[in-house]
Amino acid sequence: MSNIHDTIDNEVKSNDVVLFMKGTAEMPLCGFSGRSVQILQHLGVPFKDINVLASDELRQGIKDYTNWPTVPQLYVKGEFVGGADILMEMFQSGELKQLMSEKGIAA
């Protein structure tokens, strides 16, 4: 059985865009997660949603993985982009769309 760090690492590296969030894209369980989903959907970016509420190990593991205290967390092409506030700022400034296009992700 692999440890949670390896599991997270695998998800981050095998999916172009991953959002670790509370709930799912269809049913976010917090406002920040919901806002992050809306931003990605508005940009038309395909992403994998991972519900951190599915296990305590995952919920703590993702915080340890990035050393970032909050969820949601967005990863693009294996790199941590940020949480809801950073996503919102990047979206409003156009940086998020630019990042996606630089990484070769259709937005």
Task: Characterise this structure.
By secondary structure, the protein is an alpha+beta fold. The protein has a single domain, classed as Glutaredoxin (3-Layer(aba) Sandwich). The chain is built from 5 helices and 4 strands. The model has no long low-confidence stretch (mean pLDDT 95).
List the helices and strands and how they pair.
Blueprint (H helix, E strand, L loop, with lengths): L3 H11 L2 E5 L9 H13 L4 E4 L4 H11 L6 E4 L2 E4 L1 H10 L1 H8 L5
Parallel strand pairs: 1-2
Antiparallel strand pairs: 1-3, 3-4
Helix pairs in contact: 1-3, 2-4
Whole-number tally of structural domains: 1
Name the poorly predicted regions: none
Number of strands: 4
Largest sheet: 4 strands, mixed
Distance between the termini: 36 Å
Strand line-up of the largest beta sheet: 2-1-3-4
SSE pattern, N- to C-terminal:
HEHEHEEHH
The CATH superfamily turns out to be: Glutaredoxin
Average pLDDT value?
A: 95
Q: Give the percentage of residues in beta strands.
A: 15-25%
Helix count, DSSP H or I runs of 4 or more residues: 5
Decide which structural class fits the backbone.
Answer: alpha+beta
Oligomerization category of the chains in this entry: single chain
